[in-house]
Design goal:
This protein has 4 helices and 2 strands. The protein is mainly alpha-helical and about 180 residues long. It is found in: Cell junction, Gap junction; Cell membrane.
Length: about 180
């Protein structure tokens, strides 16, 4: 149990290390940019730890990897012990070098059962929270993209002169007059 749990913890923390390494890469890139172009140069990232672009994808990938690892270890634990239940006595048959059926007693089965239930409960909570975080990240990204798309379609809409409603045209003309134009 302890070795399996330690292995599970190692595998679950590896994706988090990947995200930390990505943030460290961004910070190093930002530092090299400042050294090369001076302290007053424009920044490459507004915030190196903010989940935008590639870091968002790295974080999402790490969540999917964590989810797969948690489910895989729950499945392994379920296969090792039938339905996470440890019996006090196991009948071992056809075990070399014994030709007969041997009674094998598991030491401290109640303690191991409680620890197994704790592992299963913790893994289940982690799975639920990871799924919620994945849905939240994707939902937030979809909402942001929808807002950007609506904003861009509002600006690109043009009205014909034969339109019966001139209120939109007048406000659009005011906006275009008030904004300075860049001449190349």
């Amino acid at each position: 149990h302890i070795r399996l749990w330690a292995l599970q913890l190692i595998f679950v923390t590896c994706p988090s290390l990947l995200v930390i390494m990505h943030v460290a890469y961004r910070e190093d890139r930002e530092r090299k940019n400042r050294e090369k172009n001076g302290e007053n140069c424009p920044k490459l990232y507004s915030n190196t730890g903010k989940k935008h672009g590639g870091l968002w994808w790295t974080y999402l990938f790490s969540l999917f990897f964590k989810l797969i690892i948690e489910i895989l270890f729950l499945y392994l634990l379920h296969k090792m012990w039938d339905s996470f239940d440890l019996p006090r006595l196991v009948k071992c048959t056809n075990v070399d070098p014994c030709p007969n059926t041997v009674d094998c007693y598991i030491a401290r089965p109640t303690e191991k059962r409680v620890f197994t239930y704790f592992m299963v409960g913790a893994s289940s909570i982690c799975i639920i929270l990871t799924v919620c975080e994945i849905f939240y990240l994707i939902f937030k990204r979809v909402v942001q993209r929808t807002r950007k798309w609506r904003k861009s379609t509002k600006r690109s809409v043009s009205y014909s002169k034969a339109s019966t409603c001139h209120c939109h045209v007048k406000s659009e003309e005011k906006d275009s007059k008030s904004q300075p134009r860049c001449v190349a």
